[in-house]
């Protein structure tokens, strides 16, 4: 559980986001058990109340569910899981677009470059 | 009560090293003293009899038999007693101050015990009393042993035998420490306890108010002393020997008890409300 | 809840606390921060009746401190409170003797949590280890409130890590904790509530997570606003 927390965003939202990322890349699978609140607090070095709040938030968003007295699990609801992926993607693209807009490139040129970079990155990784 | 016993036991353990060292010094120095003093006398007797050809009778007439009092009056005997008294006097202060100073501030622990803070006061005053009575008891055990050594060294013609009781009563300084009767014991040590309680209160004034506290402590001590002798002053200067000695004596006891209670109350108040770590 | 209300305290003529008020809740970690000088330790001492206050009131669960309050609240000062000649085991024995709230099982657990050797003498401990013994003796009491004075200051990095682990563990869970510090960097994510002290007064009392959520400010951002003017 490797998480780099920043000091300005609410810690509980950073935790929620971390779970979303893990779900999106498949590190956490639907129905998988997640650590207890206390264990999470301990591993992430955060206040147990904050961990508690993060779990509450994830429960409200339907990302995790808890059957009485059992460890919480990642949801198996495909609609929610799909939304997580989409949400992260849109968010990442939004950030990218916002920063790239200031350079004022034609969209075709940008997309070509994105294509080249994105695939070469993949090859780099495989190599 | 349980906490008081535990804490008193703990405090006594803390002083046990100093206590043992002082007992050891007393044991060694006094016994060496008996031997040295007896030797000195016997050497002198030898000298006189063999070199100056005195007879035993002539020698005894001139120099008297040796009595144990000679040992008792020597620095060998009184020195260790003075040292033990100094040790107790010193420890009356150290028993408090050692908790505040040094790397380890034990006073935090003591003040945070889930028990009345007066327990600390009682445990410490008990330790001082136990220490004092311990020295006295040890001296009482040591005396017959020293008398025995003395007898073993000095031939019966040359010595004037004395019992422990005679030795003790022969010197007023010693008979204060080891009183002849139970009443005296209670009175002397009661007065000692009273004095320690006043000193403790003074120390707690200092610990509570620092420099101003020293002033308060001196004032408290002075008031206590004046109160204590007030019946005597009254007798002498105001009522012109109105009281019988026994009445005066009882008045003194009542005064002592009042001051003792006052010291306990004041110490309790300071420990609870004014003390600072 | 620990309530500190309008507490004033003088050292000689100098006022160190000029009407300090704040509260610390059970189940939360409250951090008293002051970047300079005295005051923080004095507040903890005052809560424990280890130093008198001149004005104001301190309540623990609505009541002023009494003898048996020490079974409910404990203070871990920055210096060790046991005698140098005692061993760790003897120190634990001492606590066991006097406190009904002493939890031997938890004490043993803490001993191995901190990797301490029971037969080591207090005098021989490193700064880090004596801080851990201090923590052990406080945390092994089943008390509702724990006050800690600068638990992270002056000790090595790895001991700091171990001590930080305490704050995210069950050893702290459900207790009310007040810690003092002059440096918040390491523990920013561990604390619930922040009480900023300046010049003998509370300049700001806030929830760290709320400051991040509502104002997008880190604890240090808020501190900068208060202290750097």
Which features does this protein show?
heterotrimer, A: 127 residues, mainly alpha, Arc Repressor Mutant, subunit A, 2 domains, two-stranded antiparallel sheet, 5 helices, C: 229 residues, alpha/beta, Rossmann fold, 6-stranded mixed β-sheet, 3-stranded antiparallel β-sheet, 7 helices, 26% strand, transport (chain C), ABC_Transporter_VariousFunc (chain C), P-loop_NTPase (chain C), ATP binding (chain C)
User: What distance separates the N and C termini of chain C?
Assistant: 33 Å
Sheet/helix structural class of chain A: mainly alpha
This entry's quaternary arrangement is heterotrimer
Q: Radius of gyration of chain A, Cα only, in angstroms?
A: 18 Å
**What CATH architecture of chain C do you see?**
3-Layer(aba) Sandwich
Protein name (chain C): ABC transporter ATP-binding protein
Keywords (chain C): ATP-binding, Nucleotide-binding, Transport
InterPro entries (chain C): AAA+_ATPase, ABC_transporter-like_ATP-bd, ABC_transporter-like_CS, ABC_Transporter_VariousFunc, P-loop_NTPase
GO molecular function (chain C): ATP binding; ATP hydrolysis activity
Can you offer a commentary on this structure?
The complex is a heterotrimer of chains A (127), B (277) and C (229). Chain A has 127 residues and is mainly α. Chain A contains five helices and two strands, in the order αααββαα. Chain A has a two-stranded antiparallel ribbon. In chain A, β1 and β2 form a beta hairpin. Chain B is mainly α and 277 residues long. Chain B folds into two domains: 169 residues, no CATH class; 99 residues, no CATH class. Chain B is built from ten helices and two strands, in the order ααβααααβαααα. Chain C is an alpha/beta fold. Chain C has one domain: P-loop containing nucleotide triphosphate hydrolases (Rossmann fold, 3-Layer(aba) Sandwich). Chain C is 31% helix and 26% strand. Chain C has a six-stranded mixed β-sheet, with helices on both faces. A three-stranded antiparallel β-sheet of chain C has the order 2-1-4, covered by helices on one side. Chain C starts with a strand and ends with a helix. Classes of the chains: A mainly alpha (127), B mainly alpha (277), C alpha/beta (229). Chains in contact: A-C, B-C. Chains B and C meet through α1, α5 and α10 of B and α2 of C.
């Amino acid at each position: 559980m490797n998480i780099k927390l920043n000091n300005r965003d609410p810690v509980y939202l950073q935790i929620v986001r971390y779970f979303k990322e893990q779900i999106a890349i498949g590190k956490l699978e639907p129905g998988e058990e997640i650590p207890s609140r206390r264990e999470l607090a301990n591993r992430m070095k955060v206040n147990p109340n904050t961990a508690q709040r993060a779990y509450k938030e994830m429960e409200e968003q339907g990302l995790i569910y808890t059957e009485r007295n059992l460890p919480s699990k990642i949801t198996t609801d495909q609609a929610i899981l799909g939304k997580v992926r989409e949400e992260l993607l849109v968010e990442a693209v939004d950030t990218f677009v916002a920063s790239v807009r200031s350079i004022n490139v034609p969209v075709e040129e940008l997309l070509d470059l994105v294509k080249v970079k994105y695939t070469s990155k993949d090859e780099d990784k495989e190599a | 009560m349980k906490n008081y016993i535990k804490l008193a036991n703990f405090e006594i353990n803390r002083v046990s090293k100093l206590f043992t060292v002082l007992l050891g010094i007393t044991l060694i120095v006094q016994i060496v003293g008996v031997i040295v003093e007896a030797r000195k006398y016997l050497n002198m007797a030898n000298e006189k009899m063999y070199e100056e050809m005195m007879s035993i009778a002539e020698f005894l007439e001139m120099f008297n038999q040796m009595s144990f009092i000679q040992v008792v009056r020597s620095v060998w005997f009184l020195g260790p007693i003075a040292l033990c008294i100094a040790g107790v006097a010193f420890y009356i202060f150290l028993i408090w101050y050692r908790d505040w100073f040094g790397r380890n501030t034990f006073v935090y622990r003591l003040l945070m015990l889930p028990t009345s803070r007066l327990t600390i006061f009682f445990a410490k005053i008990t330790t001082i009393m136990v220490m004092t009575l311990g020295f006295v008891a040890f001296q009482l055990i040591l005396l017959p042993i020293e008398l025995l050594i003395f007898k073993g060294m000095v031939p019966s013609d040359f010595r004037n035998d004395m019992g422990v009781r005679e030795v003790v009563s022969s010197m007023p300084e010693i008979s204060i420490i080891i009183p002849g009767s139970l009443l005296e014991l209670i009175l002397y040590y009661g007065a000692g306890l009273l004095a320690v309680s006043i000193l403790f209160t003074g120390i707690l004034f200092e610990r509570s108010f620092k420099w101003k506290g020293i002033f308060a402590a001196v004032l408290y001590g002075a008031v206590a002393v004046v109160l204590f002798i007030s019946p005597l002053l009254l007798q002498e200067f105001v009522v012109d020997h109105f009281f019988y000695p026994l009445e005066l004596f009882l008045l003194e006891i009542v005064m002592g008890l009042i001051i003792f209670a006052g010291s306990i109350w004041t110490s309790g108040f300071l420990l609870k409300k004014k003390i600072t770590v | 809840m620990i309530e500190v209300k309008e507490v004033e305290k003088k050292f000689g003529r100098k006022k160190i606390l000029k009407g300090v008020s704040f509260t610390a809740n059970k189940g939360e970690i409250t951090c008293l921060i002051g970047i300079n000088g005295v005051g923080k330790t004095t507040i903890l001492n005052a809560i424990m009746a280890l130093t008198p206050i001149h004005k104001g009131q301190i309540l623990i669960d609505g009541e002023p401190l009494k003898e048996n309050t020490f079974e409910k609240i404990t203070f871990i000062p920055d210096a060790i409170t046991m005698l140098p000649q005692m061993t760790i085991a003897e120190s634990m024995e001492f606590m066991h003797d006097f406190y009904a709230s002493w939890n031997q099982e938890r004490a043993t657990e803490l001993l191995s949590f901190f990797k301490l050797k029971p037969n080591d003498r207090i005098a021989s401990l490193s700064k880090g280890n004596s801080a851990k013994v201090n923590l052990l003796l406080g945390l092994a009491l089943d008390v509702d409130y724990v006050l800690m004075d600068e638990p992270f200051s002056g000790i090595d990095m790895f001991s700091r890590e171990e001590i930080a682990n305490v704050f995210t563990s069950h050893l702290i869970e459900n207790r009310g904790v007040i810690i003092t510090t002059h440096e918040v960097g390491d523990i920013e994510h561990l604390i619930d509530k922040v009480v900023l002290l300046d010049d003998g007064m509370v300049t700001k009392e806030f929830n760290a997570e709320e400051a991040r959520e509502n104002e997008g400010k880190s604890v240090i951002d808020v501190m900068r606003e208060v202290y750097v003017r």
